[in-house]
Amino acid sequence: MPIPGETLQRQDIHNSQVPVVCRACEARHRGICGTLTPEQLTLLSRHASRQTFSPDQELIASGTSAHRHGAILSGVVKLTKLLGDGRQQIVGLQFAPDFLGRPFKRQSEVGAQAATDVKVCSFPKSTIEDLIRRSPDLEHRLHEQTLKELDEARDWMLTLGRKSASEKVASFLYLIATHIDPERADPTARFELPLKRADIADFLGLTIETVSRQLTKLRKAGIVEIENNRSVVVPDLERLRQAGASG
Amino acid sequence: MPIPGETLQRQDIHNSQVPVVCRACEARHRGICGTLTPEQLTLLSRHASRQTFSPDQELIASGTSAHRHGAILSGVVKLTKLLGDGRQQIVGLQFAPDFLGRPFKRQSEVGAQAATDVKVCSFPKSTIEDLIRRSPDLEHRLHEQTLKELDEARDWMLTLGRKSASEKVASFLYLIATHIDPERADPTARFELPLKRADIADFLGLTIETVSRQLTKLRKAGIVEIENNRSVVVPDLERLRQAGASG
DNA sequence: CGTCAGCTTGAAGGTGCTCAATAACCGTGG
DNA sequence: CCACGGTTATTGAGCACCTTCAAGCTGACG
Lengths: 247, 247
Prior knowledge:
11 strands; DNA-binding; about 250 residues; homodimer; four-stranded antiparallel β-sheet; alpha+beta
């Protein structure tokens, strides 16, 4: 259960310097915003704006100089790489309240598209970079996220390089199950798939057809239940984890 | 052309505070050491020691609490991940003067083994972490390296997920050619492969046999020349790059 | 009710794997 | 110097898995 907004807001009530837009923000105390001082928040919010994107809409065009960075407020973002002939690979998924953008570099080498409906709070690259230079805490926070993303990328390299199709699909479902609803103690999970089949295929380095076949195989094995193509129930998370090959 | 040692050393001659062991070090002005003040270098060097490793020797056992970090002085290090049943994937290659170790985390989730003969300068995890906390510059440098590694990991995910076997092998050769001898203007390259076939296979998510077959295919196509299994000549780097599929 | 996007299912084919034999390389010691 | 064993790499034949191509299905929305 998410913490009711009340407790979060009470903290800020005592600090009138916190910008109005931030006070009610879902991400106010998470992600990068959590480390900022009221003055820094003010500076940032002055240049910040909210945007929404619908599935498959581009947040950053690959190869384009992205002049804005941001934080995901809700939804799932896919990071993609393209080959000359159209082959595509999803190289990362990002969830709220992740930071979006690659600091200290002109060109982004990955594209970013909304996978689901997405809300972001974005600000100019230069604003956040200035802030980073002046706030070691913020850089540390971003460094931590980068390290986390690197760990995840390497986990996925193992999946891409060495797992079979059915292990890949199971690993994917397990990944989503553990990311959508971060804290859950019970062995069962229930969620909506944030990706359509084509995206899953691009994430796993497979074709749509193979993904589909492996899903029905997992369904027939009783490891997952799927309804309306998107709603998933996992009766036993541990069993799903094992289907993804024990690392 | 590398800068002659003379100019490098002259800087230190005027600064007698720089530790003796560091003065003649190949990595003194590169990698993380480059940002450190003489005092910081002294602190670090007091706890530092040099080690050498031969091929396949473990620098860090996966899952083990690595209590030392370090810098690569020479050689190539492979970062590996293992699946329960023995399947292996190399998730990164590191060259001098890269930093070795994952800060701010108890457990390393990857193993590190020497690919070639390797020299490292290592120090206790806690020493460098203290230093990081006190030196924003150092954290920035490490953050930059982490970002670089993340970019590389994602590049490789595209290779693992979407390229054919022959494209994979070509991509690998191109990667090595451009990393072994970083600055080279001419279109031709000549180098020793730092990895044996089994390692290449683990890096590419293939089998030894497939790697071998694709290498002879590239050889017969005149894209590379190979002698003694390890010495490679690439007459036209651009052609090799294209054989790896234009991204 | 028709259309369109997304998903599933089937049959055929190819790429890369498995298993197995041969060949090249390298250090050691006769 | 060559013979030798061990490690590393190449090559071949058959097969499995995943892809390709093609058809049908489902649900949302006009």
